[in-house]
């Protein structure tokens, strides 16, 4: 007999403990209640006559003890979920690799998902082998803990803890070197590189799906105040679909459109958002049947720019003055360093090769600033530095390419945290040994470029105006939302709290340099740090590969038929678990004990 | 003091008056010595009988007219009225101090009521509290004015100690006592049994009226499963695993005990009454009266 609920050692201890407790309780003589009677004369006479019944009384006591022991042992044994050993079955080890990539969340015709079918099949495989065999559960998203095979109970526990992972890059896991029969349960869409020794079990079934494969909100570089949404849809269904697309924002305005897409057809459009207010934008597609709802909606954030007052303090920079003068809704004031007044009020300060002795009262962009107290000092000047890399995902560098950036000289500054700072500045261009663009997000946001525009070809790049526009947006906290895939989301804002679009708190792990939270489904999240800085994150599936739920290697009829044969052979029939029988028996004995106690057969 | 004051309160005294009136109606003329022993002697007023004259006797009552007619010496005898003493024994052992109200209080009320009626009937009443011997004794009293004396005696009596009726009767009747009516108010839970004590009364040719008192709970106790029974008199304890069958057996044993006492009394032509403390004591006294032994 095997116990599924507990290990043999634990069940042994439990049974021994039960016996000890029951016997102890029977031996335990609670202090009797003291009752004063006028005389024990008649009681003594009566008890003297009753002494002849002592043997029967002892018999009753033993019978009662045995009954209680049996009940206790049945309940204790039932708790351990005993199972009859499969004596007639093959003694073999079983490894089950289960595909938990995004498309496994696709619903099948019977109302269950491919994932639920896969879990059911995995459970059957695990129960197929001998109880004394070794079992291992692995998955394609790395949720199952890697390790050696264990008993069936542990494998079933691992299986119960697995879920579909909408994000990540699923792949067939590395198999441990054990002599084991391998089953791979998959829909064959995202993972198809199973080794030849694995028996592939398909849970694929053609399904209808229309999904949003791309959704983004951005301003046109040529017209920074005008935002547009880019939407891409795909009909992954085997038939043509009539689709309704709806965009909604924080205001009552919305856009609704209907279109018909042929099977496998992709559709993309840029939609003007001038009537939308600042806030989250949600795109939803609906159709008559859709088996994969995770890609039916997507989120973005629409920032709203206002007139920005910029003070440019420069000894003279044609590039900066010209580019900034062309930015719409920008009020530019150009000041020479000698004329700079620290009391000058502005939304953003740009210092070119100059830095005031005191930090400005607002966010600032600095190009090669001299040494001042409030800035990290220049350690050295580096001639002809290399641009080792840049963070393309950062809002400041969005749509900015720096492949052919050439710099004659740059200042080496420290990228570590200075006194009073919680974290060091973020390096978005270069590396920490030679940071070329650093971002600081303390009391006021600061972007520091450690080279002069005149010492580089950066002003000649087409991305330079975009860089300036992005930087001004970031400094004004007008950045659009970060986009992330479902799963583990990491955001470079330390110690932040996370709320969803409804304002509900989301469990997050605030780290010293970033905040991590889990987004199992697409959604829109807002991160707020202690100093009231906010960052928006749009978690969208938005993937052509994930929406293509029918692009399966197991879609052919032969494969499906073969897989069905395997599943049928794996069905072990009715369960051999005995716990229900044991508990029913215990219940029966409890009733018997109750009746016999009241009939005074037991004590 | 307050407990004593409440034992024979105004309510109790009113009930005694009521009992006295009821007793007069039940047996009219009972106060005229009808229940008293009549002894034929040579003194007295009322003629009773004749008998043969024996040589040496006083000749003052010789019926000379009869001698002249029959030539035989015949003595005229007269009836002499004698008091019938009432000995009221109330059990003051530890077992009587049990129940709510205690059996001891109930017994004292019965003793007081019978004493009251006896004194009003000009009987000579003795009050004796007994436990393991004579514990309290009020010597013979007669007349209504002795009622308060008797009540004070009863109020001052206290319960405690073991029970031995045999010792008590032996101690009391070892001095010369006239034949009379012995009323015993007790639970008769005597380790040595009651029969020897009763035999002693029969030996002394006393008439007996036994009143057996118990609480309702004594006859059918309600006990938990595991119990340590402690004897109120002896202080001994007995661990008992109580079962419904055992309780039933105990109830039978108790009935058997009561029946034993009653049967013994009936066999000897004595009076017997059994009562529980939840029955009003005046109802109990009326039952005593109805039996006719106390009022003749």
Describe this structure in words.
The complex is a heterodimer of chains A (603) and B (296). With 603 residues, chain A is α/β, with parallel strands linked by helices. In chain A, the strands form eight sheets. In chain A, strands 16-15-17-18-23-22-21 form a seven-stranded mixed sheet, covered by helices on one side. A five-stranded mixed sheet of chain A has the order 24-31-30-26-27, with no helix packed on it. Chain A has a four-stranded parallel sheet with strand order 5-4-6-7. In chain A, helix 4 (114-128) packs antiparallel against helix 5 (152-161). Helices cover 39% and strands 26% of the residues of chain B. In chain B, the strands form three sheets. Chain B has a six-stranded mixed sheet, with helices on both faces. A three-stranded antiparallel sheet of chain B has the order 1-3-2. Chain B has a two-stranded antiparallel sheet with strand order 9-10. Chain B has helices spanning 2-7, 10-26, 64-70, 103-120, 147-156, 165-173, 195-203, 216-219, 244-267, 281-291; strands at residues 37-41, 46-52, 74-82, 85-91, 124-131, 133-141, 181-186, 207-214, 226-231, 237-241, 271-276. Chain B is built from ten helices and eleven strands. In chain B, 35% of the residues are buried. The longest helix of chain B has 24 residues, at 244-267. The two termini of chain B are 37 Å apart. Chain B is α/β, with parallel strands linked by helices. Chain B is elongated. In chain B, helix 2 crosses helix 4 (103-120), helix 2 (10-26) runs parallel beside helix 10 (281-291) and helix 4 crosses helix 10. Chain A binds chain B through residues 29-30, 32-47, 49-50, 57, 600, 603, and chain B through 94-96, 98-99, 103, 163, 187, 189-191, 215, 218, 221, 223-224, 226-234, 236-241, 243-246, 249-250, 253-254, 257. Strand 2 of chain A pairs parallel with strand 9 of chain B, so a sheet runs across the interface.
């Amino acid at each position: 007999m095997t116990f599924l609920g507990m290990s043999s050692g634990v069940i042994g201890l439990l049974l021994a403990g039960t016996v000890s407790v029951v016997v102890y309780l029977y031996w335990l003589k609670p202090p009797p209640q003291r009752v004063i009677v006028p005389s024990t004369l008649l009681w003594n006479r009566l008890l003297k006559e009753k002494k002849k019944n002592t043997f029967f009384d002892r018999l009753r006591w033993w019978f009662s003890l045995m009954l209680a022991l049996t009940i206790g042992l049945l309940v204790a044994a039932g708790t351990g979920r005993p199972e009859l050993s499969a004596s007639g079955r093959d003694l073999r080890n079983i490894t089950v690799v289960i595909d938990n990539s995004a498309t496994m969340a696709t619903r099948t015709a019977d109302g269950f998902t491919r994932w639920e079918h896969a879990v059911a099949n995995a459970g059957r495989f695990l129960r197929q082998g001998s109880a004394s065999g070794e079992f291992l559960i692995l998955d394609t998203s790395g949720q199952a803990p890697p390790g050696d095979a264990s008993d069936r109970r542990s494998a079933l526990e691992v299986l119960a803890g697995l879920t579909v992972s909408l994000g990540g890059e699923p792949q067939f896991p590395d198999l441990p070197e054990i002599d084991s029969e391998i089953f791979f349960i998959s829909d064959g869409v995202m993972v198809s590189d199973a080794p030849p020794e694995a028996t592939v079990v398909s849970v694929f079934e053609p399904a209808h799906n229309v999904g949003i494969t791309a959704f983004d909100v951005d301003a046109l570089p040529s017209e920074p105040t005008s935002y547009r949404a880019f939407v891409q849809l795909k009909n992954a269904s085997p038939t043509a679909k009539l689709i309704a697309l709806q965009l909604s924002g924080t205001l009552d305005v919305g856009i609704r459109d209907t279109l018909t897409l042929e099977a496998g057809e992709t559709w993309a459009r840029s939609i003007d958002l001038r009537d939308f207010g600042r806030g989250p934008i949600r795109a939803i597609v609906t159709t008559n049947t859709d088996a994969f709802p995770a890609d039916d909606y997507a989120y973005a954030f629409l920032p709203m720019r206002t007139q920005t007052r910029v003070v440019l303090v420069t000894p003279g920079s044609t590039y900066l003055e010209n580019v900034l003068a062309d930015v719409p809704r920008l009020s530019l004031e150009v000041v020479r360093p000698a004329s700079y007044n620290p009391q000058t009020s502005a939304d953003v300060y740009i210092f070119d090769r100059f830095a005031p002795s005191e930090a400005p009262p607002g966010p600032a962009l600095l190009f090669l600033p001299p040494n001042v107290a409030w800035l990290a000092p220049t350690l050295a000047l580096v001639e002809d530095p290399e641009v080792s890399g840049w963070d393309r995902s950062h809002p400041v560098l969005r749509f900015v390419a720096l492949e052919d950036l050439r710099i004659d000289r740059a200042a080496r500054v420290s990228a570590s945290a200075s006194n009073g700072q919680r974290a060091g500045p973020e390096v978005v261009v270069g590396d920490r040994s030679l940071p070329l663009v650093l971002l600081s997000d303390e009391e006021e946001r600061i972007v520091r470029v450690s080279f002069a525009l005149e010492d580089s070809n950066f002003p000649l790049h087409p991305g330079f105006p975009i860089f300036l526009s992005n930087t001004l947006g970031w400094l004004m906290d007008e950045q659009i939302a970060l986009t992330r895939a479902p799963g583990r989301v990491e955001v470079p804002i330390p110690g932040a709290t996370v709320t969803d679009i409804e304002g509900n708190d989301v469990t997050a792990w605030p780290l010293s340099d970033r905040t991590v939270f889990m987004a199992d489904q697409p959604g829109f999240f807002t991160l707020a740090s202690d100093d009231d800085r906010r960052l928006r994150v749009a978690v969208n599936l938005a993937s052509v590969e994930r929406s293509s739920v029918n692009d399966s290697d197991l879609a052919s009829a032969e494969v499906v038929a073969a897989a069905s044969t395997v599943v049928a052979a794996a069905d072990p029939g009715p369960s051999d678990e005995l716990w229900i029988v044991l508990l029913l028996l215990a219940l029966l004995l409890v009733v018997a004990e109750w009746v016999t106690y009241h009939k005074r057969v037991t004590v | 003091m307050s407990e004593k004051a409440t034992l024979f309160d105004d309510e109790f005294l009113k009930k005694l008056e009521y009992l006295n009136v009821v007793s007069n109606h039940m047996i009219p003329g009972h106060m005229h010595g009808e229940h008293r022993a009549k002894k034929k002697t040579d003194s007295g007023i009322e003629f009773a009988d004749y008998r043969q004259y024996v040589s040496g006797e006083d000749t003052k009552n010789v019926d000379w007219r009869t001698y002249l007619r029959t030539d035989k010496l015949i003595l005229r005898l007269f009836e002499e009225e004698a008091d019938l003493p009432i000995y009221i024994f109330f059990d003051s052992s530890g077992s009587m101090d049990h129940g709510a109200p205690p059996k001891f209080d109930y017994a004292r009320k019965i003793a007081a009521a019978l004493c009251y009626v006896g004194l009003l009937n000009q009987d000579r009443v003795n009050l004796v509290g007994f436990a393991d011997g004579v514990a309290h004794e009020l010597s013979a009293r007669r007349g209504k004015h002795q009622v308060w004396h008797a009540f004070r005696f009863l109020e001052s009596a206290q319960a405690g100690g073991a029970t031995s009726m045999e010792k008590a009767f032996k101690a009391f009747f070892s001095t010369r006592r006239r034949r009379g009516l012995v009323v015993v108010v007790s639970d008769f839970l005597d380790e040595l049994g009651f029969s020897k004590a009763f035999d002693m009364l029969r030996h002394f040719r006393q008439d007996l009226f036994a009143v057996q008192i118990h609480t309702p709970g004594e006859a059918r106790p309600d006990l938990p499963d595991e119990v340590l029974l402690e004897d109120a008199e002896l202080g001994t304890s007995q661990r008992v695993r109580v079962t419904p069958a055992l309780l039933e057996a105990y109830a039978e044993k108790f009935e058997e005990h009561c029946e034993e006492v009653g049967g013994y009394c009936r066999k000897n032509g004595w009076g017997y009454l059994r009562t529980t403390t939840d029955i009003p004591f005046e109802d109990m006294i009326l039952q005593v009266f109805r039996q006719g032994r106390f009022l003749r």
